[in-house]
């Protein structure tokens, strides 16, 4: 119905002019992730997954969604494990590819599985070192 049409419009809008939609990425991601968790409507989840891929691909908003929404990676991997429809599995793989690689250590930190209060100055990822070198 209406929700699916709105999600499709968001995905199409991102494809046409992704740069202009960047200021709303935080809000849009929150809505899309809520839709991805809606087990009552597989069609809604499929369109939300497609729209997420469109947004990420058009805006270049990669890896950051994992940091803002630590459960996203687990949600997508769970889709691969449980989803029966090949089209949704394929779209999940596409979205994972668009989102990019995530440092496993940082992901565990985001999930709260690693204590960040420990002296973390000795543990820096390559992206952190690169950022510090550019600063």
How would you summarize the topology of this molecule?
Elements: H1 2-21, H2 25-36, H3 42-59, H4 64-68, H5 71-82, H6 86-99, H7 104-111, H8 126-134
Helix content: over 70%
Order of helices and strands: HHHHHHHH
Strand content: under 5%
Total number of beta strands: 0
Shape, per Cα inertia axes: globular
Domains counted in the coordinates: how many? 1
Class based on secondary structure composition and strand pairing:
mainly alpha
Whole-number average pLDDT?
A: 82
How widely separated are the two ends? 49 Å
Low-pLDDT stretches? none
C-alpha Rg (nearest Å) = 16 Å
Count the helices. How many?
8
Main sheet: strands, sense, barrel: none
Describe this structure in words.
The chain is mainly α and 135 residues long. It has one domain. Helix content is 73%, strand content 0%. It has eight helices and no strands.
Which terms summarize this structure?
135 residues; globular; mainly alpha; 0% strand
Short characterization:
The chain is an all-alpha fold and 135 residues long. The chain has helices at residues 2-21, 25-36, 42-59, 64-68, 71-82, 86-99, 104-111, 126-134. The protein is built from 8 helices and no strands.
């Amino acid at each position: 119905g209406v929700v699916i049409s709105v999600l499709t419009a968001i995905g199409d809008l991102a494809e046409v002019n992704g740069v202009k939609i960047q200021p709303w990425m935080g809000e849009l991601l929150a809505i899309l992730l809520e839709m991805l968790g809606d087990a009552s409507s597989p069609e809604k989840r499929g369109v939300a997954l497609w729209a997420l891929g469109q947004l990420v691909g058009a805006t270049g908003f990669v890896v950051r969604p994992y940091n803002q929404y630590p459960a996203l990676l687990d949600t997508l991997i769970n889709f691969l494990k449980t989803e029966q429809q090949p089209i949704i599995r394929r779209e999940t793989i596409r979205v994972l590819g668009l989102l990019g690689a995530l440092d496993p250590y940082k992901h565990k930190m985001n999930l709260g599985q690693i204590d960040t209060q420990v002296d973390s100055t000795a543990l820096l990822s390559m992206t952190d070192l690169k950022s510090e070198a550019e600063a």
